[in-house]
Predict the 3D structure of the following.
Amino acid sequence: MLKLQPLISIIIPCYNSGKFVDKTIEMLIEQGLSECELILINDGSTDNTLDILKRYESNENIRFINQSNQGVSVARNKGIRVAQGKYVYFLDSDDTLASGSLLHFKNILKTHPNCQMYAFGYETQVGGKVSRRYVFPRYDNQTFSRQEIMRNLLSKRLCIHICSGIFERQFLLDNKLEFKPGVKIGEDVLYILQTLQQVEQVYYSKQLTFIYQIRDDSAMQGYKSYSMEQYNSQIMFQKFLLPIAIQQKSLSSSVNFFLLFSYISNLRHYLKSNLKNEELNRLFIRDGQIRYKKNYTGNVALWLVMKITMLIPIKLILKLLKS
């Protein structure tokens, strides 16, 4: 008898995840993997990750792939290609889902079958304590068009994490939507932006589902340090979004807002870090011109903050602190 197509393929890249991946797998099993397949991709781990994944070989809803280390983007792309589910969901090996999330995912996908992407509420935790919640009740149970979802995301009225979204697999394949290999920071945000530029409809649920665990050794520890890779993500966003602002005038203010928000965030992290880099100084001075572009998106408080940044003597500050 033919096995029914899974509703959801859950794709988890694993690199040196031995300390926590079994907890993540057990959490998913406990929530119920009926109508799901769990794809675990060992990305060239040098610890005991592969041994842990092999323990689950006998579970008919779980399969694992072993590959040389090629990075999270390549692992996720491989997961999309081998997945059999109608939808794909990306989860990191050290993250978790709130109780009942898998059941909620299944119910939403079945009751709203005409969307190419689905987004849900999520929160970040640092050291096991809630840092911030990204839940937007005003948009609960709403379906957005491409323009609407892009405008809301770029304007920070709505936030989507790569692990708080679900994607129709055939839609991803048809539009050749893949994560950019070799990019360690910002590849997930870029993927969401690229996807939203292709969708027809996106559904949003305010229910808290995904819990993002920030660890001390996380790739995103730009919270404590800074690197050229982090600024390269800003340049990557510029290259993708600026042509959109030209082609779609209705999104130009939202694009400018997003790029300025990203610019300010990067500048703040750089100034707080111990790094001093003349090339970064040059880039921050060059790209500071984004402060003067029209960026009003309806939020007066944030607009005023953006206006205040126009008064900051960035060149002087960088000369004093980073030269």
In short: The beta strands are 8-14, 36-43, 62-67, 87-90, 96-97, 117-126, 129-134, 142-145, 165-168, 201-214. Residues 20 and 94 are 6 Å apart (CA to CA).
